[in-house]
Amino acid sequence: MAHTDKPKILVVNDDAASLLALTSLLDQWAEESNYTVHAARSGQDALRQVLLHDFAVILLDVNMPGMDGFETAEAIHQRARSADIPIIFVTAFLADEIDRLKAYQRGAADFLFTPVIPQILRAKVSVFVALAMKNEQLKRQAEKLSQRTTELTATNRRLVREMEERRDAERKSHAKDEFLAMLGHELRNPLSAISSASSLIGLPGASSDTVGRARQIIQRQSQHLSRIVDDLLDLSRAMSGKILLARKPVDMAGLVSGCLETFRATGRSAGYHVSVDLAPGWVDGDPTRLEQIVSNLIDNALKYTASGGSIDIQLAEAGAEVVLTVRDSGVGIPAELLPQVFDVFVQGAISIDRSQGGLGIGLSLVRRMVELHGGSVSAHSDGCGKGSTFTIRLPRTEAEPAAPAQQSHGDNSGKPAVLLIEDNEDGREMMAAMLAAHGYPVDQAADGLQGVAAAQARLPALALVDIGLPGIDGYEVARRLRGDPATSAIRLIALTGYGLAEDQRRVLEAGFDQHLVKPVSIEQLLAALAGAPEQAQAPLRDGVRAASAA
């Protein structure tokens, strides 16, 4: 449809002279009144014009052959697009009341009688032209307003989204700040105890009992620091998807029993009423990670249950799943915290109880470890003071066939010579002192090149080699020792803070026999030196092990 900014007038008349007279009159004022004039010789022609153009007003002759003015008006107003066009009927006779009613029923807005008086024609047409211009103006304003409303709505949505994102970022930042502050607190506590105990050992008047207690404090707090570091590393690796599972069939009943025995042996569960109901249940998983899951759940129950409270542990098969439930009678979980109890940082920021210490990331680790095993974890609590229930669901597998009994190798009373290659002076001195106290002859080297030279000169039975050494690293030390026929038979144990599966593979490829992740307890170290994989970590030559910090 052609478009012009000027309003349009349609003159419909079957008489050529009358049509020319009306259009000529209207053309005289068209420029001044800012409109254009169109003509039609019949009702059908008028309908075609209405389909092509929007008209401000139609001057319609009543008496036309074929389709008269009333029929034409009715047809025009039946179309939705042209239903509101005002029509002025032009007639040669004075209409009576019946004709007027008929005309108005067909949509007439006014009447003109011939002969047409030019001033009256101009006045009436001007009213409808002005009205059309005003309507067009209002229409454009409405379109602009609608467009502006759309723009403002989009802007408002964007601002709301940005505000929500900012609030979310601020919440996360605040939670992380609180987590870091809590981490600093948790690190300072054991460090303060270690510092005080170390100073106490050096006092001239310290009794042997006092020194003994101080040593126990140092050992206990060092283990606590180690657990904190392990939790942080595990959380980071779990969140980044870098944990690789060493899967095998695992007897969950035996694993849960082992975890409980550890808590009993350390006195952690003393003073609690612990009930256990363990049905047989096997899963395909990583024993180290599954033990971590169970230990975290039991530790969480103990932490938030006062002494004298009850803890119920159940293991059962449910269809294709093994279900572990840990229920306690402790402080419970507020309703607003329950949906977030497994979230990272959130629990640390709004923890149920800080009196027991810890980083508050144990449940986050539980969820991620369970999900890695293809399972699910859920929490339930009726509210504060009403205890909590945590449920783990893991895919069930078939039991592992019983392995044939192995003969004991017996005790080895011989103490092989050990070469310790470690660049950290304090760590090297303490480890050498511990090994010497247990009867091992120990030689020391402070870097990789010194270590290779010492091994070639003394030919020790074992070498404990740090990976991050100056000069040449531990991998190169192992390669050089394996490449020399004189030192190729030395048993090599990697002693390092690197514990990922990729690090273990590199250790194996470099020629090491075993991989220990720092910090290493004296029991674990002695077992490794004695060649007891059931107590230490299994040699890599028998398969890549699942390190505790992997």
TrEMBL record:
Positions of the Response regulatory domain: 8-129, 417-533
EC number, as in UniProt: 2.7.13.3
Every Histidine kinase domain range: 182-398
Entry coiled-coil feature ranges: 128-172
UniProt keyword annotations, A-Z: Coiled coil, Phosphoprotein
Catalytic activity: ATP + protein L-histidine = ADP + protein N-phospho-L-histidine
Record-listed 4-aspartylphosphate modification sites: 61, 466
Protein name in the entry: histidine kinase
Source species: Massilia hydrophila
